[in-house]
Design goal:
The complex is a heterodimer of chains A (350) and B (608). Chain A is α/β, with parallel strands linked by helices and 350 residues long. Chain A contains eleven helices and twelve strands. In chain A, strand 9 and strand 10 form a beta hairpin. Classes of the chains: A alpha/beta (350), B alpha/beta (608).
C-alpha cells in the first residue's frame, strides 16, 4: 500500500453527463496489499458509476467484514457507506432499500463473508429479489486472518503453506442461478474490459444482480498450486484510471479478444482459463447457464461474462406492494392516523 | 360448605389446546368487563398447537386488583387429561364444573369441593350434527351454564356474540342456542345463582381490554414506523401481526392502493435486526420484535448500532429462559442481557411498560428516543403483558405532537456548514449530527462502521481518539438519563424507611401487596421504574431508604444487579423479591418474601 496520493488531476479529464470526472467517484486511498485484485474491482466500480453518470450521493455502498468489505472506503467517497458485521450485509441492504427505493445499492462482499458466515443472508436476499448489486470479491481465502482456505477454494487447491484443500468448493454463481437470482455474472478482477460493462448492467438491472469476481489474493493465495493465483500474469497488467498504487507492484489485469477463451498461465505452469461467454449462449436460459457453468468446472475452466439475466423482473418492493415513494420520505401526517382514529380503536376494545 | 363471594374470585378453565375454547373463555371474561367489573384474564398455554392441556384463568376483583392470585374458586374442567390436578387446585369450599356425560372417577371426589356436572357432550350430540359444531359449542354451553350459575346478564352475552359475528350472522343463532342450552340445564338441575357470583358495577370507566402486543403494534403505527422486520417467535409474534392489522386499515395510500409500510419476515433474528438497522440508517423508522433467544442472536448487531450510533427499536417480549426455557411462560429475565447486549463496553436504553397503554405510548415514543439518542431502544415487555388481555386506561394521542427526528442535517444545513463531522460533539451533550444517504451531492457523506473512527468517521487505531469517542458515548448516556421516561414515585416525600422498587408486569401485584400491607399498618414507599438508565430520582430513592425491596420475575435479581452496578450502592440494602416459576408474580408471594426480611417478621394476612 501507499499512503500518499497526489491531488493533481489532469485539468482536461473527461466529464460525464453530470459534469463530474472520475475524481468525484473515487474514495480514500486503499490500505489493501499492493496488487490486490480487489483494488481493480474498486476501480471498475468507479468507472462504471462514472460512465453511467449516477450522482454519487444517490448510491449507497454496503459491505460485511473482511478485505473485500474494506473496499467501499476506497471507492465512491461522496456516497454514504456502511461497513456492517460479518456476513450480514444483505440484511442491512434490505432494510436500507426498504427505507428508500430510489437509491442504487452497491453491496460488496467476499467469499468468507458470503459463502460461509453470510450464506443464510445471501440465499435469502436472492429469494427476495432485492434490487441491488451484489459483488463477491472471490479470492478463495481469508486474507485478513492470514490466508486460511475459504469455502470457495477449489478441492486440491494448495494454500501458501502447501496444504491441499480437501473440501469441495461452493460455486456462488451456480448457487445464485439455482436459487433464482435474476442477474448472474462471473468475471475476473483483472478484466476491466469485461467487468465494467457487467457492473453497469448490474446497476441497471431492476432486481438482484450478482457478480462473482475472481480476485486474486497476492499475499496469501498467489502460490504454486493455488487455483486462484495470478502472479504470472503480472506481465499482462495495465494501469487503470485510479492512482492508488505504488508502481513496483501494480494491480493485475488481462485483456484478450472478445468471444475467445484465454488461459492465464501461472509461473508454476498451472493455469486458469477465462472463457468468454460464447456468442451462441442464450443469456435468458437459466438451465443452459447452470449446465454451461457446470461443464466449465468439469474442464477446470472458469466461465465468465453474463451468465443469466431476467430483464423484466419484480423486485421486493413490487412483490410486497410498497408505496412508489420512498418510505423514508413520508410525512408524519401520512404516517400517524391521529386522535380521531384512535377513539374508534379504543371503542373496539371496550 | 360454600364460599360466599361477590365480584371477588378466580375462575379457571381447563381445556384441550386447539378445541376452540379460547373464544368461549374470552366471551366469559369480556362479559364481566361489560358488566363494569374489573377483570384480569390470563392464558396459561402449552408450547403446542393441538392436544395438550391449556388453561384460562380469570380473576375478578371489585377492588381492582389485576395481578394473578393463587387458588381457584371455580374450576371449569373439560379436559380429562388434567382433571386430577385440576380437582386438586380448587380451593376448599370452591366449585368444580365438569362434563358429566361420563361419571367422575371416585378418586376425583373431594369432600370439600362442590361439584356441578353438566353433560356437555351429551347435549351437543343431541343438539348438533356437525362434528366441529359438536366440539365448539360444548364451550359455549358451559359459558351459558356459568352465566346462570354466576349471574352474567344474558343481554351482555347476546350483544358480545352479535359483535363477534358481525358479517357472519348465520353463526349467531347456534351460539345463542348453545348458551340457552347451558342456562336451561342449570335452571332444571341446580339452585342458582351461586353465592360465588357477579353483580353489575360501574368500575371500568372508559378503560379498555387489550393485549400488550397489539398495543405495541398500534404504537408503532402511531410512532411512524415504516419498515418492520421480524422473525416468528413466541410470545412476540403478535407484535408484528398487530402492526400489520392496524397498518392495513390506516396506512394504505388512497390513490395507488399501495402500502405506506413494508413488513419483511426475515430468515432469522440476525437478519431482522440487520434490516432494522439498515432502514433506520437510511432515515426510515423501523423496528423488530423478538423474545429471549432472538435477543441473544441480535447481540452483535446491537453492539454495532450502539457503537456506530444508529437508531433502532427492538421490542423484547420476554419469556422464561435460559435457552428455549419455557416458551409459553412469562418472566422478566432478559434485563441484564438487554442492558449490556454485545461485546465490549456497551449499554442500551431499556423501557419498561406495565400496561397496554404504556406499550402503546412507549413504542410510539421509542422512535423519538432512538432518533434523538441515535442508539437502540429496547422495550422490555413480557408474555404476560404481551399475550394476555389487560384492563388498561385507553390509548391517548395528542395531534399537536410532532415526531422528534433528532439531529439530522438537511441539504440546506450542510450547504451552510463550514465542515461536517459525523461524530463531532458540537453541542456538548454527546449527541452528534447525522446525515441520511442521498441528502447532498458532495457534502455530508460518511462511512458507517463498527470499527473505531475519529470525529469525521475516518478509520483510526489511535487509542486516544478511540477513548475520546468512548467517553463521548458515556456523555450521551448521561444525557439519556433525563431523556428517557422518568420513574413513577408513589409518594411526594418519604414516609417509610422501607422502599419498594418494581416495574413492568410486577406492578399490579406489587400495588396489591402494598395495599394489603397498608391495611395492616405496614407502610412502604414505592417507585416504579419506567426506563434504564436510571435518573437521579432512582438514586435518591435508594439512598434515602434503609432497605429497598426490588420486586421482579427472574431467579437472579437482574434489576437489583443493574441498580447495584449502575448506582454503586450497597448490595445489602437491596433485597430481592423474586418469582421465577414462569407464572406471573402474585401479591401473596411478594408479601411472604417481604415479611421474612422484616425483623421481627410481620405476620401478614394473605388471601384466603
Amino acid at each position: 500500500m501507499t499512503y500518499i496520493r497526489s491531488k493533481f488531476r489532469h485539468p482536461g479529464l473527461p466529464k460525464n453527463e453530470l459534469g463530474y470526472t472520475t475524481q468525484e467517484y473515487e474514495g480514500a486511498i486503499s490500505t489493501l496489499c499492493a496488487g490486490c485484485g480487489h483494488d481493480s474491482i474498486s476501480g471498475s466500480i468507479i468507472q462504471a458509476c462514472y460512465e453511467l453518470s449516477i450522482a454519487p450521493h444517490r448510491i449507497a455502498k454496503l459491505s460485511g467484514i473482511g478485505c473485500s468489505s474494506k473496499t467501499p472506503t476506497y471507492f465512491l467517497g461522496n456516497s454514504h457507506g456502511f461497513n456492517s458485521v460479518h456476513g450480514r450485509m444483505p440484511s442491512v441492504a434490505t432494510g436500507a432499500n426498504m427505507a428508500n427505493r430510489d437509491l442504487v445499492y452497491m453491496g460488496v462482499s467476499g467469499d468468507g463473508d458470503t459463502a460461509s458466515i453470510g450464506m443464510g443472508q445471501f440465499v435469502h436476499v436472492i429469494r427476495r429479489n432485492l434490487n441491488m448489486v451484489y459483488i463477491v470479491m472471490n479470492n478463495g481465502c481469508y486474507g485478513l486472518t492470514k490466508g486460511q482456505d475459504s469455502a470457495t477454494a477449489d478441492e486440491g487447491s494448495k494454500s501458501k503453506k502447501g496444504v491441499a484443500n480437501p473440501f469441495q468448493p461452493i460455486d456462488l454463481a451456480g448457487l445464485a442461478l439455482e436459487l433464482g437470482a435474476t442477474f448472474v455474472a462471473q468475471s475476473f478482477s483483472g478484466d476491466k474490459e469485461q467487468l465494467i460493462p457487467l457492473i453497469k448492467a448490474a446497476i441497471d438491472h431492476p432486481g438482484f444482480a450478482f457478480i462473482n469476481v475472481i480476485s486474486p489474493c497476492v499475499t496469501f493465495n498467489n502460490n504454486p498450486g493455488s487455483t486462484k493465483s495470478y502472479d504470472y500474469v503480472r506481465e499482462h497488467m495495465e494501469a487503470t484510471g485510479t492512482t492508488d498504487f505504488v508502481p513496483e507492484k501494480r494491480e493485475i489485469t488481462t485483456s484478450y479478444e472478445k468471444g475467445s477463451g484465454t488461459d492465464i498461465q501461472m509461473h508454476d505452469g498451472t493455469y486458469i482459463r477465462l472463457e468468454k461467454l460464447a456468442a451462441t449462449r442464450d443469456p435468458f436460459d437459466r438451465l443452459g447457464a447452470i449446465n454451461a457453468l457446470q461443464n466449465s468446472r468439469n474442464h477446470n475452466e472458469i466461465l465468465t461474462g453474463l451468465l443469466y439475466v431476467e430483464p423484466k423482473t419484480s423486485d421486493l418492493h413490487e412483490i410486497i406492494q410498497t408505496s412508489d415513494r420512498p418510505l423514508n420520505s413520508l410525512r408524519q401526517d401520512e404516517l400517524c392516523p391521529g386522535t380521531l382514529a384512535l377513539a374508534d380503536i379504543n371503542q373496539d376494545y371496550r | 360448605m360454600h364460599n360466599s363471594k361477590i365480584n371477588d374470585f378466580v375462575v379457571r378453565f381447563a381445556n384441550v389446546n386447539g378445541t376452540g375454547s379460547a373464544s368461549a373463555n374470552y366471551l366469559f371474561a369480556k362479559a364481566i368487563f361489560r358488566m363494569g367489573i374489573p377483570v384480569a384474564p390470563k392464558n396459561i398455554f402449552p408450547s403446542n398447537i393441538q392436544g395438550l392441556p391449556t388453561w384460562y384463568e380469570v380473576r375478578v376483583s371489585e377492588k381492582g386488583y389485576l395481578g394473578r392470585r393463587e387458588g381457584v374458586d371455580m374450576m371449569i374442567c373439560v379436559n380429562p387429561q388434567s382433571m386430577p390436578s385440576d380437582v386438586a387446585d380448587v380451593k376448599s369450599g370452591g366449585y368444580f364444573l365438569y362434563d358429566s356425560t361420563k361419571a367422575l372417577h371416585q378418586e376425583l371426589i373431594r369432600d370439600d369441593v362442590n361439584y356441578i356436572g353438566v353433560p356437555l357432550m351429551e347435549i351437543c350430540l343431541r343438539e348438533f350434527t356437525d362434528p366441529r359444531q359438536r366440539q365448539l359449542f360444548k364451550n359455549i354451553i358451559y359459558v351459558g351454564a356459568l352465566s346462570a350459575l354466576m349471574g352474567i346478564e344474558f343481554e351482555v352475552l347476546e350483544q358480545l356474540l352479535t359483535e363477534q359475528f358481525n358479517g357472519k350472522e348465520k353463526l349467531i343463532a347456534p351460539n345463542i342456542k348453545s348458551l340457552q342450552l347451558g342456562i336451561q340445564y342449570i335452571h332444571d338441575n341446580y339452585a342458582y345463582p351461586l353465592d360465588l357470583r357477579l353483580e353489575r358495577r360501574d368500575l371500568i370507566g372508559d378503560r379498555i381490554l387489550v393485549e400488550g402486543n397489539d398495543a405495541c403494534g398500534l404504537g408503532a403505527v402511531y410512532g411512524g414506523a415504516t419498515v418492520v422486520a421480524w422473525y416468528p417467535i413466541t410470545p412476540s409474534t403478535s407484535v408484528a401481526e398487530g402492526f400489520e392489522k392496524h397498518a392495513k386499515k390506516m396506512r394504505i395510500d388512497k390513490e395507488t392502493g399501495k402500502k405506506n409500510y413494508a413488513i419483511i419476515q426475515a430468515e432469522d433474528e440476525l437478519a431482522a435486526i440487520g434490516m432494522v438497522i439498515g432502514a433506520n440508517w437510511n432515515g426510515a423508522r423501523s423496528f423488530t420484535a423478538t423474545s429471549g433467544p432472538g435477543l441473544s442472536l441480535m447481540n452483535e448487531f446491537l453492539g454495532l448500532a450502539y457503537f456506530a450510533e444508529i437508531p433502532a427499536v427492538l421490542i423484547d417480549v420476554q419469556r422464561t429462559g435460559p435457552s428455549t426455557g419455557m416458551p409459553t411462560r412469562t418472566q422478566q429475565s432478559d434485563i441484564t442481557l438487554a442492558a449490556y447486549a454485545s461485546h465490549g463496553d456497551t449499554k442500551h436504553i431499556l423501557l419498561f411498560p406495565s400496561t397496554p397503554k404504556e406499550c402503546f405510548e412507549m413504542t410510539a415514543g421509542s422512535f423519538d428516543l432512538a432518533e434523538q439518542l441515535q442508539t437502540p431502544i429496547i422495550l422490555m415487555s413480557d408474555l404476560d403483558l404481551g399475550m394476555n388481555d389487560h384492563l388498561s386506561e385507553p390509548f391517548e394521542w395528542n395531534d399537536k405532537r410532532k415526531y422528534i427526528r433528532g439531529k439530522v442535517l438537511s441539504a440546506k444545513q450542510l450547504e451552510d456548514m463550514p465542515h461536517f463531522g459525523r461524530y463531532l460533539d458540537v453541542d456538548g451533550d454527546g449527541i452528534t449530527y447525522r446525515t441520511i444517504p442521498g441528502t447532498h451531492p458532495t457534502k455530508g457523506s460518511f462511512f458507517t462502521r463498527g470499527t473505531s473512527r475519529d470525529e469525521y468517521a475516518a478509520y483510526t487505531e489511535d487509542g486516544t481518539v478511540y477513548a475520546r469517542n468512548m467517553a463521548r458515548l458515556l456523555k450521551k448516556w448521561d444525557t439519556a438519563k433525563d431523556t428517557v421516561p422518568a420513574p413513577y414515585l408513589y409518594q411526594q416525600e418519604n414516609k417509610s424507611p422501607y422502599g419498594l422498587i418494581f416495574f413492568g408486569t410486577s406492578t399490579d401485584s406489587a400495588e396489591e401487596a402494598m395495599d394489603i400491607m397498608a391495611g395492616q399498618n405496614i407502610a412502604f414507599d414505592a417507585l416504579r421504574l419506567k426506563a434504564f438508565p436510571f435518573n437521579k430520582t432512582v438514586e435518591d430513592f435508594v439512598n434515602t431508604h434503609e432497605r429497598v425491596f426490588v420486586i421482579e420475575q427472574n431467579r437472579d435479581g437482574q434489576m437489583r444487579s443493574l441498580l447495584i452496578n449502575e448506582l454503586n450502592t450497597n448490595p445489602q440494602k437491596l433485597i430481592a423479591i423474586l418469582n421465577y416459576d414462569g407464572m406471573p408474580i402474585t401479591a401473596d408471594t411478594i408479601m411472604t418474601q417481604i415479611s421474612k426480611n422484616l425483623i421481627p417478621a410481620k405476620n401478614l394476612v394473605y388471601h384466603q
